[in-house]
Each structure stands twice: as C-alpha cells, then as structure tokens.
C-alpha cells in the first residue's frame, strides 16, 4: 500500500522539475532555487586558468553544480552586479592542478529567473504523458502511485529475490555459449573495473599482458554466468510470450529523466545514439519475466 503523502510528495517534485523558469517582472536579489545567467572569470594568484571562464552561463542556484561555496556567495546578488567570489577547490578535485587551491571568481549577474507556479493542468499532463490524448490529472497521479509501488516491489525483488532466482536458473541449465559473446562480456566487465581504478593502478596493467590475462580470467566465471542468464531469460520470455515494445522503453526513460530533472528528449536521444535501448529493453523483459514467475504481476 502506498501512503497518499508519498504520492503527493513525488507528484509535487515531478511538477516542480517540469515547471519552466520565467523572467521576473519585479527586481529582487538572487535567491536559492533561481536560475541565474552570468559571466565569470576565475583566477589563481591573479592568473586566469583553463576552464575557469564563461559567458552567459546558466545555473540553478543551490543545485550544487559549482565548487562548494560558489553558489552560496551568489545569493543576494542583483542583476547587473559584479562581485568577487573566493572559493577553495576540493582536495579531491578532478583536476590535480587545481585541487586544494584558492581561486577568486569575478562574477557578473545578467539575468535571473524563478520557477513558475507548478500546476497539474492540461498542458502539464500532455508534457508528463506525451502521446496519450486521453490522459488526465488523475492519470498522472495513478502513474505516480504505480511507480512508487513498483519501486518498493523492485527493491525487494532486486535485493533478495532476483539474485536467488537467477543463481538457481544458471545452476540448473548447462549449454555451450558463443565464445565471442563471452569475450565481449569479459571486455565489458573489465572496462567497468578499469573505471574504478586509480591512475596508478591502471598504469600497472599497461604493457603487462600477463597481468591483463589474469584480470580477464578473474571475471570469466561471472561473465559466463551473465551471458548464460541472458540467453535463459530470452528463451523463457519468448516461451511465456513476454514482450516490451519500443514505446514502453521510451516512456520509462522519459519518466526517469523527468524525475531526475533532466531533459527527457535529450536523454532518449543519448540512449538511441549510444545503442543503449536494447539493454534497457532486455532489463525490462527480465523484470516482467521474474515478476510473472513470482506472481508479482497479478
């Protein structure tokens, strides 16, 4: 059972994330939550540094997108005002040349916008549920409730039930796998591990074929089980006539993008351009299949 307060909170967040910013008619200082348009020039010891300058930059104040302290010091600025902001780059900042150093940014505020009033009107409904001409405000509320319920079930399913079912399936069946697909899965798992390694650790693998081969062998069993699971899920899903159409995939990505305050169309295009839609579809088919096996689709 979903608490109505949870639905209300999620709905309000969804509306807020999708309510556009509007230029204010009255003059007032910049506040947290406003969208600011400004120029900035950063200097360390009086010298400009690479990547520390921009014009017409747009930022939602309080989003935490900039260095800690930068956005806080912008609060209270007026349009047309220029102000020096002093911040210190974090010790673990991505650029080692800037990490831990103090910088002074000269900021000029050109424009500020505030979010309009969030309303679940006809225009908003069409934005939240594109392509459904029959959708109403109640449709949106129902979908939000369904999403929350689905997330609760998914947590139990993903954390506890699904791993056990997958393990049991893989152990039950034995069959030959295409070696090239297993090698591709090993490549994928190695790339994931590499992304979590430090530069020093990565350096130990450069030119060391023996060490690279050891790493590949260390993930081989997991890769084999992963490929086997994919083949099993696909075969069982076909037998059970479980399908996911492209519209369902797009809607899922669209909704998650909106909940994360991202541009849904840009996110969908990113998935399309990077050939990620098949993986999303397979994941959705997998979820449908195991939901059916466990009786969660009733």
Describe the protein in words.
The chain has 298 residues and is of the alpha+beta class. It has two domains: 21-115, Chitinase A, domain 3, CATH 3.10.50; 132-293, Trigger factor, domain 2 (Orthogonal Bundle), CATH 1.10.3120. It is 52% helix and 16% strand. It has helices spanning 4-17, 70-74, 122-128, 137-172, 179-195, 199-203, 209-239, 246-259, 264-273, 277-293; strands at residues 21-23, 35-44, 47-60, 82-88, 102-115. The chain is flat.
How many separate domains? 2
Helical amount: 40-55%
- Annotated CATH architecture of the largest domain: Orthogonal Bundle
Largest sheet: 5 strands, antiparallel
Outline: flat
Helix-strand pattern, N to C?
HEEEHEEHHHHHHHH
Number of helices: 10
How far is the first residue's CA from the last residue's CA?
15 Å
CATH top-level class of the largest domain: Mainly Alpha
What is the structural class?
A: alpha+beta
Rg from Cα: 25 Å
Strand content: 15-25%
Count the E strands: 5
Mean pLDDT across all residues, rounded?
88
The low-confidence runs, each spanning 5 or more residues with pLDDT under 50, are none
CATH superfamily descriptor of the largest domain: Trigger factor, C-terminal domain
CATH topology of the largest domain: Trigger factor, domain 2
Brief digest:
The protein has 298 residues and is α+β, with helices and mostly antiparallel strands. It has ten helices and five strands; from the N terminus they run αβββαββαααααααα. The longest helix has 36 residues.
């Amino acid at each position: 059972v979903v608490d109505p307060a949870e639905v209300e909170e999620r709905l309000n967040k969804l509306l807020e994330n999708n309510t556009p910013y509007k230029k204010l008619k009255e003059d007032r200082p910049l506040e947290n939550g406003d969208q600011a348009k400004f120029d900035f020039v950063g200097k360390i010891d009086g010298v400009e540094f690479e990547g520390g300058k921009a014009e017409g930059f747009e930022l939602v104040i309080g989003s935490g997108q900039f260095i800690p302290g930068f956005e806080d010091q912008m609060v209270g600025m007026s349009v047309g005002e220029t102000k020096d902001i002093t911040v210190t780059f974090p010790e673990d900042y991505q650029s080692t040349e800037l990490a831990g150093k103090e910088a002074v940014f000269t900021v000029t505020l050109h424009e500020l916008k505030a979010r309009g009033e969030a309303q679940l009107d006809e225009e908003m409904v069409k934005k939240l549920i594109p392509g459904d001409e029959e959708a109403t405000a109640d449709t949106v509320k129902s979908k939000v409730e369904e999403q929350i319920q689905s997330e609760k079930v998914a947590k139990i399913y993903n954390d506890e039930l699904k791993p056990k079912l997958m393990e049991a399936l893989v152990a039950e069946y034995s069959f030959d796998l295409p070696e090239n697909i297993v090698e591709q899965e090993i490549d994928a798992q190695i790339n994931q591990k590499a992304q979590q390694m430090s530069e020093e650790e990565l350096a130990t693998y450069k030119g060391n074929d023996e060490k690279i081969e050891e790493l590949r062998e260390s993930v081989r069993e997991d890769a084999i089980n992963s490929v086997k699971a994919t083949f099993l899920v696909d075969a069982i899903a076909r037998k059970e006539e479980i399908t996911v159409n492209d519209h369902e995939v797009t809607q899922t990505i669209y909704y998650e993008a909106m909940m994360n305050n991202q541009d849904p169309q840009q996110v969908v295009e990113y998935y399309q351009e990077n050939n990620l839609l098949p993986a999303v579809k397979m994941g959705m088919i997998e979820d449908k299949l195991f939901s059916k096996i466990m009786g969660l689709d009733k």
